[in-house]
Amino acid sequence: MTTILNNTSLKSLHTFRLPYSARKIIEITDAAALAEIEDAYYVLGEGSNTIFTSDFEPTLARIAIKGIQVERAVDAHYLSVGAGENWHQLVEYTLAHDMPGLENLALIPGSVGAAPVQNIGAYGVEVGQYIHKVRAWDKQSRTFVSFDQQACQFAYRDSLFKRNANRYVIVEVTFCLPHAWEPTLNYGGLTELAGTRSASAIKDAVIRIRQSKLPDPKEIPNAGSFFKNPVISQQQYASLLERFPQAPSYPTADGNVKVAAGWLIDTLGLKGFSIGGAAVHTKQALVLINKANATGADILTLAYEIKRQVADAFGIELEVEVRLLNHKELIS
Ligand SMILES: Cc1cc2nc3c(=O)[nH]c(=O)nc-3n(C[C@H](O)[C@H](O)[C@H](O)COP(=O)(O)OP(=O)(O)OC[C@H]3O[C@@H](n4cnc5c(N)ncnc54)[C@H](O)[C@@H]3O)c2cc1C
């Protein structure tokens, strides 16, 4: 079914809850409809990584395709999941049916269709590891296309879909959860679970840690990490360490170093710093919040100011992780 919504408030459709509206939203529950309707400019999932900084003129699409189909093969469970399913509910479903693998990604807000776009990740696991196939509508060729894991070009908070912004409308994601499962416990507060073989216990721990660290968007509007953790060369890292020996960092697979963006912002004393109604969260420097009646301009000015201060102090360019939209297009 296809539903058209005109002049609709976006406040409850993105977690930063800015009071803007969309001229037209097309909601679809059936992939086949994509071939018959106009192409929307931007696909909106649950809006937890999207900030509308103004009223939005071009057409939006919301993909409400539901369904989880499970196939048990010799090596793994293969789950084909509609893009409109909720991510955390999928994680709960897999664990309730004894299919471990996604537990470290519990409680990440958003839809299944958005998960491959920025290759969601947390506590040492990225969703791309478990993606077997992505089926999407290609607005350029106006056909349905399928991408295997390699073709998705997953990288840190990145993928083919993110790099070709607005080209593909993901309708279904197929996950491969191998029967041979090993827990990933080398991150954050999970190390104390060493030795556990219970994916549900890991999921519960992840939920507890996340709830203690991150503001709940239902109470404090936010879009999660506003900036990516910057990846710098060994040489840049050595010079950073000379001035800041305590800078937290993680090695990357390609020999570079990922630095904690939250630490950079915190070190500049910016926790709680605000411009208009937008602020840096007082407990988590990587999260910007809508403190009270923030405007799009408040957020853009705050983000610009943080980027400027980090560049001046550390010589590091922060890259915005969230998707920012102005009145007519994606601006990051
Ligand atoms: C409190 C909080 C904590 C978070 N923690 C994490 C975390 O730990 N790790 C992490 O990686 N992210 C995290 N995020 C970010 C966010 O949860 C993810 O990016 C999530 O995948 C966004 O899903 P969504 O449906 O809300 O996407 P939206 O914000 O609606 O869209 C995000 C992007 O995906 C595209 N998109 C959405 N659906 C489709 C589709 N069907 N086809 C094609 N493109 C589509 C959009 O066009 C946009 O580019 C957090 C966010 C919040 C608010």
From TrEMBL:
Its cofactor is FAD. Its EC number is 1.3.1.98. It catalyses: UDP-N-acetyl-alpha-D-muramate + NADP(+) = UDP-N-acetyl-3-O-(1-carboxyvinyl)-alpha-D-glucosamine + NADPH + H(+). GO terms for cellular component: cytosol. It is found in: Cytoplasm. The keyword Cell cycle applies. The active site is at residues 157, 225, 321. HAMAP family: MurB. This is UDP-N-acetylenolpyruvoylglucosamine reductase. It comes from Pseudidiomarina atlantica. The gene is murB.
